[in-house]
Amino acid sequence: MKADQLQDMLLTLRFEMQRSFGLPGLLGALTIGAAAIVAVSTPSVDSGTHGMREMQDPARVARTANAHRLAGESSAAVDPVALDTLPGLFPGFTQSANDIAVIFAQARESNLTLGSAEYQVTTEAGAPFTRYQVLLPVKDQYSAIRHFLAAVLNNVPNAALQAIHVERPAVDGNILDARVRFELIYRTAQP
After folding, report:
1. What is the pLDDT of residues 160-184, one digit of tens each?
2. What gap in Å lies between CA 34 and CA 36, rounded to an integer?
3. Is 92 within 8 Å of 128 (Cβ atoms)?
4. DSSP states along 4-46
5. In its keyword annotation, does this UniProt entry include Transmembrane helix (predicted)?
């Protein structure tokens, strides 16, 4: 049977069903056909859920939980060593001027209009890190601001985007006023 003949036969069948049963009957027949297809494919789905019934076995669940607990205890012994080496991965605070210069260079490359920035250094007693917050007022289109944020986060590895507040001064405008707060993390000088 050729494709044209099959198409003609299906079209004739559709018109005959629509004439006999009307549009609601035709839609009902299509719904019944779809339900039949779902019913035929359901056994294959049920066979795939057999493993889920095995997971509900209480003894098996307990053995799995015990194995995860033991694995967690062995990794807990590694964590203090990792935490001791973590501060050494961050640059010292002397790097802060270079990081600020990189942030401003990224703003120039993104053609952003920057306002006057606010800076705040926070060091907690005994903490291995110093936090340097930089609050920048930015004015430009959304895509330029997004490009600037991505460039800073890609080029200053010790920078984190803490907050961004965006306002649109004019309803029909595409220029946004944003306040972006970066936090730069540095290791504290060891005594």
Report:
1. 999 999 998 888 888 888 999 999 9
2. 5
3. no
4. HHHHHHHHHHHHHHHHHHHHHHHHHHHHHHHHHHHHHHHHHHH
5. yes
